[in-house]
Design brief:
- The complex is a heterodimer of chains A (496) and B (492).
- With 496 residues, chain A is mostly helical.
- Chain A has one domain.
- Chain A contains 20 helices and 4 strands.
- A two-stranded antiparallel sheet of chain A has the order 1-2. In chain A, strands 3-4 form a two-stranded antiparallel sheet.
- In chain A, β1 and β2 form a beta hairpin.
- In chain B, α3 runs antiparallel to α4.
- Helix content of chain B is 72%, strand content 0%.
- Chain B is built from 21 helices and no strands.
- The chains are: A mainly alpha (496), B mainly alpha (492).
- The interface between A and B is medium-sized, with 33 and 32 residues.
Chain lengths: 496, 492
Amino acid sequence: MTALLTVILSFLGALVCGLMPASAHQRIRWVALATAAAGFAVSMVCYLNLTGGEIADKKNFDWIPTLGISFITGYDGISLPLLLVTGLVAICGVLFSWTLEDRANQFYAYYFALIGGVYGVFLSLDLFLLFVFYEIAVVPKYFLIAIWGGVRRQFAAMKLVLYSFGGSALVLLGMIALFFLTKDTSTGEAVRSFSLIKLQEGQVAAEAQTWIFLLLFLGFAILAGMWPFHTWAPTGHVAAPTATSMLLAGVVMKLGAYGCLRVAIGLLPQGAQEWSTCIAIFAIINIVYGAFVALKQDDFKFVIGYSSVSHMGFVLLGLATLNEIGTTGAVLQMFSHGVIGALLFAMVGTVIYTRTKTRMLDELHRLIDRMPGIAWLFVAAGLASMGLPGFSGFISELYVLIGIWKQEALSGWILVAAGFGILMTFGYTLVKIHEAFFRERRDGDAPVAETPYPAMTIPEKVGIAILLGASLLIGICPWILTDKIKLSLNLLEAIN
Amino acid sequence: MDLDFQQLLLTLLPDLVVVVALFAALGVDYSKLRGAALAERYETAFHISALGLLIGLVMTMLQAAGKISVMDAEATHGQLNFTTGTLTLKAALFVLGLAVLPLAKRDLVTAHASEYFALILLATLGMGFVVTSQNLLGAFVALELVSLSLYAMTALNQSRATSAEAALKYLTFGAVASGFLLFGLSYLYGATAELNLAKLGELEPSSLLIVAYLLILVGLGFKLALAPFHLWAPDVYQAAPTPVAGWIGSGSKIAAAALLLVLLQPIANSPELKDALVPALAALAVASMLVGNLGALRQTNLKRLLAYSAIANAGYLVVGVLAFSDDGNISVLFYILVYSVGSLGAFAVISVLADRLGREAEISDFNGYWKTMPGLSIAFMIFLLSMAGIPPLAGFLGKFYLFFAAIGAQPEAATLTDGYYWLVAFALVMSVVSLYYYLRVLKAFLVVTDEDNEAKPVAVGTAAGLSIFALAAILVVLGLWPEPLLNLLPTK
């Protein structure tokens, strides 16, 4: 029951927060922090309990036998890093929303409904159940953005939800096809089950694999922010309140990538091989295009939004390698971007914005004079985002690059292009940091006060420490996660 | 074999109780309450009819559970078909009828207090007979009983001139549709010389049946509001008293869908009929999804929006019909049941919030109710998200099952046009569109802050509150635990 507690506690937290009166926002935020911390604590227990690559803590109940649907949950080395990052980001999301008072009860009700859905996806071992949780995570996003968001929030919320729902429509079609077309390897009869384990044991005819893989991968990749279906991500991230952007970039985009790996690649190895070059090309476009667009943005939050698109390109690229080291890099990148993306959104959306009241880069200059501490922390976060050695991004991107190198099916040009993408990341990160923090005041700029901005609050400090610390920890000791990831990836037929 | 009248009395006891309640409500209103205040007359008529329907419901459930013995089809000379499945449907209709009654008593739209309730009971009885009848003519007469009651009820809104106009429109369209249906049934009888619906499945197909079915599809297409026979729906939904609109959108749809499944049985075994009728049915499905979903996008009136959403949902339903399998039939019935619960619930909330204030139920009239009426707003969210097909609510499982059954009918599709992959894909695209307008409505309820301070709290009342709570609870429970109902529903 251990792992399922994450889901149960989150939904319970949503209920409790929702039922508390809005005026009790101080108590609500402590309840929220406790709920998020409890979820993370449970994930940590899961981490300590996992020894091999096999699925741990497996629970199996009949749910709707008429339709071959069971309630099967469990976790392994692939879902574990994602459980952990969900816990971390959930805690920090609460910390960076510490001053939120407007409709706080509803905010946390939606917030934890979303988080419960996310945990559920990572724990589901039945495709139908996974889909249910996946959809549960869709609707709260709409309300979180439409109610508490910034400019153009209604548009952004609707766009984001329709993209997510469109993606899941593809997934739904693919999963019904899998139900009927997966055949038992010995008898040749349809397995007629949604259990991921049974579907994995079965066999799908080669030509069916091609199109079912396309449906499933594309459906999930929309949520992972794959070009050209990424446009929901920057608009959604920018309009969302900080905690929601952190969740969107940190966790929700990983739902899509996780689905690509667990469902599309895990169940349809031949389909994956057929499409791998195509995925790699799209991933490269993600990386390079995201970086170029980030370079052109004036709104600091849009810079981070497009950098997320760019970083998710590395996840997709890692998946396209279909070998152990590349996919390990992809899973590690999911964790790494989870913490770093959340950190950057927190810095820009809350730490800097609450002080400067603007996110437009041409209105910001020499922030280093007025908020030196924050500025240096942001530089550190930027270095993490660039993937400097010592941070988790370095390890994951390195793994992905080695994965491409080792995969003979992928052309060497992919590697070159990926390397170019990394250079681009350096480029836009440094340029934007310079513009915001170090650029001298130009003639046209408004004069600024000399007085320093208020210092960081305690929740802000703790949140930054957690996220930056997590990235450093994995950057220095990557084996904490990679050992577990590898063991489980080896059990997937597609990875060899 | 002679009819065992004693046994027949026992079998039809639930319906007799409802009939007695109906006359009691009328009688008390005409005699004792002559000249009494309107509110008091409504209250009395409500109590009598609710009591009658409740007793009828309990008895029907006892019959379905086998505690009260019922005659089998043989013993009724093939007139009635009381099985666990049909009795479950009948019980579900009685439950929905019970949910409508408290709404009808809230707004005193007409001076005809007892007639209002009597008509609701008559419609409920008719629906019950449509799903339990095994005779072609019996089913038709029962369906007409439903329709006539609904026509009359639509005109009851005396405060609004459009009410009578909509009723006339409904009646005119409906009469023509009934004509088509009856004409089709006569062809069906002419081709088969069989009035017993149970034997339809075993018949030799003949080409005359194609004509019969096309006519039947027109007739039932009207009752289900399938495009292009949907034109009456938006006006009727908007102008009818809100509880009546809810009842038109729920109970009558269940009856029509059940009859459609029974009548279409012969198609399953006949490739010839399938070739001719599958394109017609698929065209109805596609047209309805298209007209309904695109039409709903630009509505500003909530009732009209729900009418278009009903058209779209009838389109989804036909996707399940097209499976022509046991799975398909159960999925259609499950879907129409949960859809009806959602739709009725949405109308119930509108009735509580808008009618008291004399509003037209424009979407913007509901701005900011999250603050003053949080419970109703959450219930409304459950109803709409269920209709949109968001898990874990029952509407999701209903839609999923429809698509599942449609693909399962022919999963090994060599090309895109084989099987129903293309149709399901189209339906899924349309569901994405539908989420847009459902969220637009929910935005008014749950997102927008009410600056003009118009979203004043409204007294819901115990009975109406209970009814809305029960409808929302049904959607949650059936979404999490649908297995018992799925096993109870009849395969034909």
